[in-house]
Design brief:
Layout (H helix, E strand, L loop, with lengths): L1 H16 L1 E2 L6 H9 L5 H6 L5 E3 L3 E6 L6 H16 L13 H18 L6 E6 L5 H12 L13 H5 L2 E6 L2 H11 L8 H13 L1 H8 L16 H9 L10 E4 L2 E4 L8 E4 H4 L7 H4 L5 E5 L4 E5 L11 H13 L6 E3 L3 H7 L6 H11 L6 E3 H8 L11 E7 L14 E7 L12 H6 L6 E5 L9
Parallel strand pairs: 8-9
Antiparallel strand pairs: 1-5, 2-3, 4-5, 6-7, 9-10, 10-13, 11-12, 13-14, 14-15
Helix pairs in contact: 4-5, 4-11, 5-8
Length: 459
């Protein structure tokens, strides 16, 4: 009996202090899942930063030292903005909260990402913990005092040395995890914090589950050649599913089932690749629950956001299904279908398709006998919105880019602008830039007057 008590006490002490990462049976598979078959030292170093705030100009904005970890950093930034802007306590002070308040919101933002994983399995937190040797203590002090310094000034470790200092904590409930996270949140602001967050989320989601979701793409979460996060990683951070697709729901292509985004996301996603006609982002990502969107260029991720809640829409499932079906008859996204396709469209939605009724609807929806039926007319007839949403014609917007070199005066801050949704008959602005092109996939007639002389960069 005494021996059993000692063993139990030993296990509790082990749990309280964390276990070594290398002792996990999944450690090698997790490394391959993230990095691929090999790890380049320069790519590893670019990912080896923490969640660093720009305490001088924009206290709630995260800094990104180098290209690579934006998939994690922008997702955390987006969820942090959700917590700050829509917190009744912060109000107009969302850009300058007290340190304790900021830590609380940072904790809650990470918890929101955990909740997206929707798992009843064991939950994990990983921390990079230095041993208390004199050399390590000095390194830790230097890291804490120079958190805003360039990563080039930090001491370098190789990957094996890094994982040798990772401790793993296991929890059965989110509440237990939150308690530990709140106490150790500052640990994620130090070197390797971004990677520790990534590893924690992947272990919590489960390697088998992520591997199943990655099967379609066959890629690692971090590109082994260029070091950027994959679309799978971006979707995992935003929605909790590691698919490479951005369309709604599941699709079948030549007998192959492709997984998309199953539900309306809390944080949205828009990409310049849609403007270039390489893909089409679905409703679930274009219309998030909060007016915050990740913007993707070909190589980088940034955040576009507003405090204007009328920019977001409620998810009316039957109407969204109708929109998806309509698009299947309108693959070029013209906004209309041929009148002769109406019967097939109605049949796909289990609507009445008796010839006399269909002919009557044709006359009603194509009153001018143009041979086409617009999406707006079809939806208003069969799937009217429960409430007429009034979107403002002008609203305040903000843009965040974590790379200092991409900001005016090389300081990370929120660029402010006044957005206008002009009428189709109005003369659009002649200025062409990547951020406007990206936003036009959501608001085709958007124009933005930026307060600064320089238009914010997506890169």
């Amino acid at each position: 009996m005494e021996s059993s008590r000692e063993n139990l006490h030993h296990e509790n002490d082990k749990l309280a202090s964390g276990i070594d990462f290398n002792s996990l049976s999944e450690s090698k598979d997790l490394t391959t899942l993230i990095w691929g078959n090999s790890i380049k030292q320069d790519i590893f170093e670019r990912w080896s930063q923490g969640l660093i705030f720009n305490n001088k100009k924009e206290p709630t904005a995260l800094l990104q030292y180098s290209g690579g970890p934006c998939a994690v950093i922008t997702a955390v930034q987006a969820y942090l903005l959700k917590e700050l802007i829509f917190c009744s306590k912060c109000g107009d002070n969302w850009r300058n909260p007290e340190k304790d308040e900021l830590n609380k919101h940072l904790t809650d933002s990470l918890l929101s990402i955990y909740i997206n994983l929707s798992t009843e399995k064991t939950k994990y937190l990983l921390f990079y913990e230095l041993e208390e040797t004199n050399q390590d203590i000095e390194l830790n002090k230097e890291s804490k005092s120079n958190v805003t310094e360039s990563s080039s000034k930090r001491a370098k470790l190789d990957y094996d040395a890094f994982i040798g200092k990772i401790k793993v904590y296991k929890f059965s409930t989110l509440n237990e995890l939150k308690e530990k996270l709140a106490v150790k949140i500052d640990n994620y602001k130090l070197d390797y914090g971004v990677l520790c967050i990534l590893y924690s989320l992947i272990l919590t989601k489960g390697l088998d589950e992520i591997e199943r979701e990655l099967e379609e793409s066959g890629e690692s979460l971090i590109d082994p050649l260029h070091g950027h996060g994959s679309q799978c990683l971006t979707n995992l951070m935003l929605c909790g599913i590691a698919t490479s697709n951005v369309f709604d729901g599941d699709k079948s292509l030549e007998g192959l089932s492709l997984k998309g985004i199953p539900n309306q996301s809390s944080i949205g996603f828009l990409t310049i690749m849609e403007y270039l006609r390489y893909c089409e982002v679905g409703w679930n990502l274009k219309n998030p629950k909060y007016p915050i969107w990740i913007l993707a260029s070909e190589t980088h991720l940034t955040v576009f956001f507003s405090k204007e809640t009328s920019l977001v829409q409620k998810n009316e499932s039957s109407r969204q299904t109708a929109i998806q079906k309509f698009k299947s008859f309108d693959p070029d996204d013209n906004g209309f279908v041929k009148s002769e396709d109406l019967e097939g469209l109605m049949a796909s939605l289990d609507l009445l398709t008796e010839k006399e009724y269909v002919d009557c609807i044709k006359l009603q929806l194509d009153a001018e006998n143009l041979g086409i039926i617009t999406q707006t007319a079809f939806l208003n007839e069969f799937y009217p919105e429960s409430e007429q949403q009034i979107i403002p014609t002008d609203f305040r917007v903000y843009h965040y880019n974590g790379l200092a070199r991409s900001n005016q005066e090389n300081e990370v801050h929120y660029s402010e602008g006044k957005a206008r949704l002009i009428d189709f008959t109005d003369q659009p602005g002649l200025d062409l830039n990547s951020i406007k092109s990206c936003l036009q996939t959501k608001w085709p007639t958007i124009e933005i007057d930026w307060i600064e002389s320089r238009v914010p960069s997506l890169n």
